Amino acid sequence: MFLAPKEIKKETGDSLIYCPRRVLVSKEFTFDAAHHLFNYEGKCKALHGHTYRLQLAVSGFLDDCGMVYDFGDLKEIYKNELEPKLDHRYLNESLPYMNTTAENMVYWIYQTCAESLPSDRGLEMEYVRLYETPTSFAEFRKEWDID
């Protein structure tokens, strides 16, 4: 049962930040795409498709509103930078030259998203996870992005 509030709370002017620590936010997307693998002797050598599931995770400190990064802004990065190259595309043609394995793709997605984050907020791309099937994924994490 839901009880109606006795009153609608109003801002007091105090800080809206409760958490003083770095927090991770994540958003998930799906897209359909076709590809084939080079230099591979298996079923994936032939042209085929997947319904991919993609998770993007960003961390940062809360802003004055109490948010790390608006989920809508994360969606905009996907819509503007990733979806045009991924959704309903032939990945061997739409992505930079690579073998379009989940492992290669997840690194390209990570780099693309990291470059798209605003530079003035201390945001960090934490990880990208790309499911090629419901039970198989590749992941790239921030701590692995070292030379």
UniProtKB/TrEMBL annotation:
Pathway: Purine metabolism; 7-cyano-7-deazaguanine biosynthesis
Highest taxon, organism lineage: Bacteria
Pfam families (alphabetical): PTPS
Entry note: cofactor: Binds 1 zinc ion per subunit.
Cofactor list: Zn(2+)
GO molecular function, one term: 6-carboxytetrahydropterin synthase activity
Keyword field contains Lyase: yes
Reaction equation(s) it catalyzes: 7,8-dihydroneopterin 3'-triphosphate + H2O = 6-carboxy-5,6,7,8-tetrahydropterin + triphosphate + acetaldehyde + 2 H(+)
Annotated SUPFAM superfamilies: Tetrahydrobiopterin biosynthesis enzymes-like
Enzyme class: lyase
Keywords, comma-separated and alphabetical: Lyase, Metal-binding, Queuosine biosynthesis, Zinc
Protein EC: 4.-.-.-
Keyword Hydrolase listed: no
InterPro entries per UniProt: 6-PTP_synth/QueD, 6-PTP_synth/QueD_sf
Family: Belongs to the PTPS family. QueD subfamily.
PANTHER family in alphabetical order: 6-PYRUVOYL TETRAHYDROBIOPTERIN SYNTHASE, PYRUVOYL TETRAHYDROBIOPTERIN SYNTHASE
Name under which the protein is recorded: 6-carboxy-5,6,7,8-tetrahydropterin synthase
Species assigned in the record: Streptococcus saliviloxodontae
